[in-house]
DNA sequence: GGTCACTGGTAATCACGATTTTCACAAAAT
DNA sequence: ATTTTGTGAAAATCGTGATTACCAGTGACC
């Protein structure tokens, strides 16, 4: 069964083909678009026969899922590694690091955010589930760092779950915008904005306005004017 | 040519069919998913023949684009209307209003955020362009309000463009999460988080940390590990 | 009441792309 | 040197769903 061919073990050849298919998939999905990419095109670009394709993947979506996972895993690995190095640093430095490494990793290649935040959206329930899992992981990560900051007294002690989710969304939005722009936006600005937003979101006081809490949920759409807002002291 | 049927003018009948097709599209796209919805299914649910379908729309995507536009337009109309009512209010109240109305409008029906932020993503270049246009509009809106706040002295005077984009992303993320959750997250919490994040992002000082500016773009990814790197080389 | 215009529904048609199968070959093994 | 086995390329199959063409019915107008 297993027989060395052309000097390389069959597993190796297999792995190579798989790798080439993934590379081809990344390229085509992010240029032609996932929907409009045909399996045969992926095979052609990868120099792999359709038969071999089905040896490695069950479908086009399978390739997409794999890529999506890989990109997220790569980013997470980088972030984790870097965070370990600054284990003793103060909380805010850690948060900045987390962010910088994330942005740096994912902007190395515009195809990564494109695949992650555009092509892999709304494709199938499975992919949506996978997305959820990753949002969760990233949100946990951020929430954990925020709590750490709270312990150190530089942020209020509160539940950071939703804030973290919103921050993940903010990053997604920025990166989606970044990869879509033709004269690409400067990466530094994206990173700076993301960092500033995260820090201000985490360090913000529990009540931003004193009216906070009276409004909130309800704010009916019809309800007319509500100017006035008497007696509010402005936060600094 | 034009003849009244069943007591209604042909244009009316036409408009009705169109409307039913849109309703059916909204329902199916957000349950079955856009990709897996067949034109015939939309027609069946709308009680419209395929022939009539092609009389109104050129493709399934056409329906999606129309819905995407409608939802955004609806939200924008509500927001604009409400904002007009509080024209004289202080800047922060206006911002809160903007947000509350937006959230209230779009959470009336979970299918709206689902369609807008999941199903309509990565479908085609046209739809991506349309998405860009709307992000732009919303971002301008937010940036304008932020500038207003700056004029009133409750926020620093600076360029709010990227902040606004990030905020749009935050909202998108929150709403995407909201519509995905089975025991749905309480709308008030989503709204509260969004508002708090927006206010803290707008009111934040220009430099959050003193180290700000030394870090930023660079944050090297540590030349060491880059195993997975799913992006080999550029296309020909 | 009869004819005509327009309608909705159904039944072909048609194209495209995924999946399978075949084929001829190349490199190992004996 | 011959057989064997894994291989890649190409061709055949197969299904699905978009698009078009047809048919029978209904209400409107004379």
Give me some keywords for this one.
236 residues; homodimer; 9 helices; mainly alpha; 0% strand
Q: Can you characterise this structure?
A:
The structure is a homodimer of 236-residue chains. By secondary structure, the first copy, chain A, is mostly helical. Helix content of chain A is 65%, strand content 0%. Chain A has nine helices and no strands. In chain A, α1 packs across α6, α6 packs across α8 and α7 crosses α8. The longest helix of chain A is centred in the middle third of the chain and has 27 residues. The first copy, chain A, is elongated, with a radius of gyration of 23 Å. Chain A starts with 9 loop residues before the first helix and ends in a 33-residue tail after the last helix. The C terminus of chain A is likely disordered. Chains A and B meet through α1, α4, α5, α6 and α7 of A and α4, α5, α7, α8 and α9 of B. The structure holds a DNA duplex (30 and 30 nucleotides).
